[in-house]
Amino acid sequence: MGELDLLAVRAVLSELGAHGSSSLDAMSVDGTIALLEGIVGLESALESVRARAVVHLEDAVKEDCLRRDESPRQAARVARSEAARALKKSRSVAGRTLATSRRLVRSMPGMLTALSHARMVPQAAHKVGSVVGPATPEQRRQVDEILSSRLSALEGCGSLEWGDQAAKILHALDPEGAAARHHAAKKDRHVRVRRTDHGMAQVTAVIPGIDGARIRKGLSVAAESARAQGDRRGHQQIMADLFADALIGRADGVDPTSLDVGIVITDRSLLSPAHADAALVEGFGAVPYEHAREEMLRAAQSEDDPELALTLRRLYADVDVGDLVAVESTARAFPPALKRFLMIAHQTCRAPHCDAPIRQMDHIVPWSQGGATSLDNGNGLCAGDNQKEISGERAEVVRDEDGVRRTVRWTTRHGQTASRGAIDLDPVGTYRRRRAKHLARSTDPETQNDSAQESGPPTEPAAPRDDALQLGPPTERGTRPDIAPPDGAENGGAQQGDAPHHDELGTATLDRALEDLRVRLTDLPLRHGTDRPGRHPGDWIVLRGSRGR
């Protein structure tokens, strides 16, 4: 019966796709948008069914092979061949599809459910399935549960950010295994050159992540310099030409320069490397802490290369959601320090479903309409998405009940909406604290009475049961200090003789750990109260205090 229904639906859609219809041609803009949204939802639902189907096909073929007294290895090969023919893909691609589908079906029911309800696209689901490949089934279940609790925040993300979040969670759950996974992945380094259309070629190199980030930034900086000197080629065209020139020795290539590549690591990683969190490379994504640690030690101990230096700056994240706290400036153009902070906080283009590198800084509320030059009103975007007003789109900040920015909602001219939030730098810690708060509320009679009077569906997925994922008690963190303006600035700087902040002990411990690395510290915050600062003249920045509730 199901086969007959599917064939009937296919026949109708085939006829409509091949010949069109008068009703489709006469459809309004809103009607066409609704149709496309329905098609996307149908694609996601079909992909979830296809995942189950290919896993069932694999199991059935393997059982048949074993009945024929064939080896398990031969059975796996036959199953992959059958899947490749059914999916109309190569054996290698079909093998990857089988592997990610198997993980989704058997270990990640939350992701499969999200896919079936179009809360994530197929590419994102298979990206998550690929990232958790080396993990155990139990670790995959834990990653699945944490990601499922953040669906509303991740729906507007691109597939690469979905994978990044999964990688950070897996790293936090198994930091020792992360180093082993990284060293195993390094063995697969390779370069591939493929022919593309119209006499062009595509060069792909699989190398360690930090090296890749350096290459991209070096080419991007050189391209920006060429554009500033009047080169009329596009940014990407210049990067491609410089890449080829450097490799084959044509022209001058890229001049050796000192590049500033940002890597975000947690204090926990410095103080306890055995339980480290994943490092976040600016404009690239999550990498195992062991990879970042190797580069840090190499920079700290380098004597041959005077340009190779390690500088650590302190950043402070919101304890509730894991994103970086705010900074602001009174200038219209984003000053270098504020721009750098935005690039670290946002990592990739913040437009919905976009994973492109950040090229430009955008005022969400335009400067001409009174918008501030601040983190709350700043968005790192690629060049294409920074033209949103020209294409009829608008963006607005969505704040929580305390007035704190949580997401940015984009709306098209015809009313389509999508949201994109900041990056959670500590997804496991955020999950742990949210779960602890939920359990505390569930045992509070007054909170239960208030909740019983509320109506409407919840905006977040239901919290896990007591017997669900166990990640230990929530970690308590002290109130973070502010970064103040320079001494003597109007309405602001810290006075001489101020009492030390209560977090001095923890800061001293971190200072000692950094001193052991023989690194140079910059931008150390002065310790003082957490009052919200006013506007100040100049282009220096202000880091506001804790927003923990």
Task: Characterize the structure shown.
Among the domains are: 33-173, no CATH class; 187-312, no CATH class. The model is unreliable at 454-507 and 517-549 (pLDDT under 50). The chain has helices spanning 2-19, 22-25, 29-67, 72-87, 91-107, 109-116, 122-131, 137-148, 151-154, 159-173, 175-186, 209-228, 235-248, 267-271, 289-301, 336-346, 427-442, 445-453, 504-516; strands spanning 190-195, 201-206, 263-264, 279-281, 285-287, 311-312, 328-329, 360-363, 373-374, 378-381, 394-399, 405-411, 417-421, 520-521. It has a three-stranded antiparallel sheet with strand order 3-4-5. Helix 3 (29-67) packs across helix 5 (91-107), helix 4 crosses helix 5 (91-107) and helix 8 (137-148) packs across helix 10 (159-173). By secondary structure, the protein is mainly alpha-helical. The protein has 19 helices and 14 strands.
